[in-house]
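Students often ask what a holo structure prediction actually looks like on paper. The answer is less mysterious than it sounds. You provide the chain, you provide the ligand, and the output is a string of discrete structure tokens encoding the 3D arrangement of the protein together with NAP.
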Amino acid sequence: MGARFDGKVVLVTGSSSGIGEAAARAFHAEGATVVVNSSRSVEAGRAVAASLGRATYLQADIADPDDCRRLVDDVRTTFGRLDVLINNAGTTRVIPHHDLDAATDDAFREIFEVNVFGTFRLTRLAMPLLRDSNGSVVNVTSLAGVRPTGSSIPYAASKAALNHLTALVANVTGPAVRVNAVAPGLVRTPWTSDWGPLHDAMADRAPMGRSAEPDDVARVIVDVAAAEYMTGQVVVVDGGLGLR
Ligand SMILES: NC(=O)c1ccc[n+]([C@@H]2O[C@H](COP(=O)([O-])OP(=O)(O)OC[C@H]3O[C@@H](n4cnc5c(N)ncnc54)[C@H](OP(=O)(O)O)[C@@H]3O)[C@@H](O)[C@H]2O)c1
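The corresponding structure tokens follow.
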């Protein structure tokens, strides 16, 4: 593998496990210095950073405005630059879509605080550093933001909002900063560890015949971050699930 991110600083939110951890490792393998982040799983996040070496762990809850400011300030103070922001941190509540009464204002607020408000806020705060480095942003969204599916209606709506934010922000930050999204289908992470029947169903439902592993998604995140002429796009990585 080439070292496309030699000398670059990459911040991956929500990288103490799952897709974020795999992305942190993939960027590190390509030469980057990586900022690992999570809100609660501090020990796990520190362990990821320690296992990499050229990495540092910064605790921050992206739903908290003060934490977002501190996170960007710490990156600026420690490294003096930011080349890539991977907005991977996200949250959900599992609510059957037909149960409209369970999709409460609270559920919407809790999910949007992280997936939409937190992600946009961090992007806004990081933009001066990203402009200085001609950097890029990759938002980890979901197939649920493209098709009427996913763990709940509030979650799917939050990811659809983030897909559109991707285009809206890309439209005003080029040519200095590119903004794209990677939208996974079903991925084997701690998030979906007790969704056994859904993983089993992927054998029949998805043309690729299996759920994604975190590395399947991480590889695309790195490629999208490296794609110098691509901006405003949502790249679906779902093993073809959305076709069925
Ligand atoms: N797994 C799937 O099938 C799938 C499919 C489509 C899209 N996605 C998306 O992929 C992303 C990663 O999910 P995953 O499956 O890899 O889940 P995961 O293994 O549970 O990882 C989620 C990460 O986000 C962190 N996080 C959560 N809330 C945060 C906050 N407010 N501030 C900072 N960090 C926060 C978590 O750490 P703490 O909890 O300690 O903060 C953890 O590091 C999410 O955006 C999710 O919507 C996943």
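Residues 13-20, 37-41, 61-63, 88-91, 114, 118, 140, 142, 184, 186-187, 189-192 surround NAP (CB under 6 Å).
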